[in-house]
Amino acid sequence: xxxxxxxxxxxxxxxxxxxxxxxxxxxxxxxxxxxxxxxxxxxxxxxxxxxxxxxxxxxxxxxxxxxxxxxxxxxxxxxxxxxxxxxxxxxxxxxxxxxxxxxxxxxxxxxxxxxxxxxxxxxxxxxxxxxxxxxxxxxxxxxxxxxxxxxxxxxxxxxxxxxxxxxxxxxxxxxxxxxxxxxxxxxxxxxxxxxxxxxxxxxxxxxxxxxxxxxxxxxxxxxxxxxxxxxxxxxxxxxxxxxxxxxxxxxxxxxxxxxxxxxxxxxxxxxxxxxxxxxxxxxxxxxxxxxxxxxxxxxxxxxxxxxxxxxxxxxxxxxxxxxxxxxxxxxxxxxxxxxxxxxxxxxxxxxxxxxxxxxxxxxxxxxxxxxxxxxxxxxxxxxxxxxxxxxxxxxxxxxxxxxxxxxxxxxxxxxxxxxxxxxxxxxxxxxxxxxxxxxxxxxxxxxxxxxxxxxxxxxxxxxxxxxxxxxxxxxxxxxxxxxxxxxxxxxxxxxxxxxxxxxxxxxx
Length: 508
Known about the structure:
508 residues, mainly beta, two-stranded antiparallel ribbon, Porin, disordered N terminus, 21 strands, 18-stranded antiparallel beta barrel, single chain
């Protein structure tokens, strides 16, 4: 008994001293932002509008019927509303080796949100602007742990992140998604190797109906350049993701295996800043159950080059981007096996560049002013982009190409102005990327010009942490933005889309 007491006391002392040795100071940090957004526009789809018809997201064709069906709802009419977003991040930091992060998000899609207290809590998401407030509108964006691993025989520092975190690789071209996963960083100077695994969908525990993401990202910093390469594999035993049931014996409609490969470089080339991206998507979607149908093969690509020349208070730049488009004779609207194309044949191929399910690439390709392409001025909430959490879609760039020229001038320490022009072309074959125009025989029309976009952006620094962005622009619409009228083989040309939008943001 005495031995047991002595050993117990010794164990307690060892634990106490070990805790003292490993004790570190805990530091709490808070950061985030609050913003106020305003919108006044015509004939532009919005990412905050809920349209059940478009939940799956198109590879090509009509977007957001509220704004793109001639003579109905908001088509050719002026629209206006205001919105808000808040983000709050807490970091519990215990030295360089260990930290934990909890990140919240709150939205009001439109001031005066209509969801009332009779709605379930989940339906109050994005609606804290409801009259009398008190909404269940706080969302969990991230919850993860960062830690450095102890020495395990590899002569290189290794960091690990576990939990609900961003999957972010070239977000303006490929993927930004928040999800459950494990990522690592292995630093072998000047190279960082970053393997990753994410669980996109679990489904039934005893069935192989889940979806996993595997990837490897390699980054090298060489003098004034950062060079990177990556590969992502999406193993989707359920596709689209929204087909989930707990009932055993009920199986997914489709399965998909997809790859994204890419290379990029960022850096300074003489007096100019230079950015380059090249990305390919490859894979297929197969019909798991039901009527036999041919596999749908995916093979798209996209590239982007951006050059900035800063000179004193000026900055001049050019951007070129090309993203492959679909062939409407071989591709159905949604790209599923068994679906019919516009010409009545079964879908077999998607040559349009597509982004992974759930990617918010449209929230990173900020080359526009909120007309055809998204804008950082209003957080990407207006554009002809296709967002979806459940399927592969063309995102912001698929089926289009563009050349952009711009120049900015810092008039004063608190004020900067930017003028830009973008020519936008259509790369979809035997049909149009965003328009739905038809010939007199009812077959889709193939046009080449989406339009010429002109934009003006003002940046006003009211205080160091308070900034007001104002954007205004017009899209001189080309034939590729014409729409088929309901019930007849005739088309309508919309009035030129335009927008005036702003965002007042307080960062802390």
